[in-house]
Amino acid sequence: MTDTSAPLLSLRGINKSFGPVHVLRDVDLDVRAGRVTALVGDNGAGKSTLIKGIAGIYPFDSGQVSFEGKPVSIGGPKQANDLGIEVVYQDLALCDNLDVVHNMFLGREVKSGVTLNETDMEKRAAETLQGLSVRTLKSLRQQVSSLSGGQRQTVAIARAVLWNSKLVILDEPTAALGVAQTEQVLNLVRRLADNGLGVILISHNMNDVQAVADDIACLYLGQMAAQVEKSSVSSQQVVELITTGRSGDIGLQPETAMGGAA
Fold first, then answer.
1. Is the pTM above the cut of 0.85?
2. Is residue 145 part of a domain?
């Protein structure tokens, strides 16, 4: 059982503006190892900006970032990767003309001298997929173009955890999937956390959130309305936090909720 007492990733007072538009306002977020934290919010709430800051794509304007209890400054994607932060974006960034192994090692190929070490890469790819209990792929050497949507998502997630990652961020991983494939991917998301990783799941689908999340962080107009344990709130309360920034006594103060913030 993973120790969940101290956050793996902790953000405090995060701000980000693009010109005159204040996209993130004093955002706090905690992500713990061994738990799935669902990041939810309406379009324009700031979810993409927040994860791109964590991934080193955008620098935050102000605020503190801690990783494994130590203050860090994430100056670019390589620094995020070096910490153990990996992101699986919605477009997956897979190459259709390459097989599963070459996609998993894309840009980080293992070499023996000047040639690729195919044996080592295939072995490590197989071990990673086995560790995630993935049984839906017929062959590691089949081209990605021949895979279903769920299988492609599986390859992208497996690639993210191949690199001794500690935190995996998944951007709408079930958005284009059918029911059976969605279940496969959600089972995989759960296994990531059960294997001790911290997981941030961005989703608009409340059924997915209810199925796999341990914690729910609700962004509203660039502010963190609330971060709560899933077991402590109903789906209706989560929807209210997303749409108005407040539900009962949870969330933003009434004067800043419901669009009151300038």
1. yes
2. no
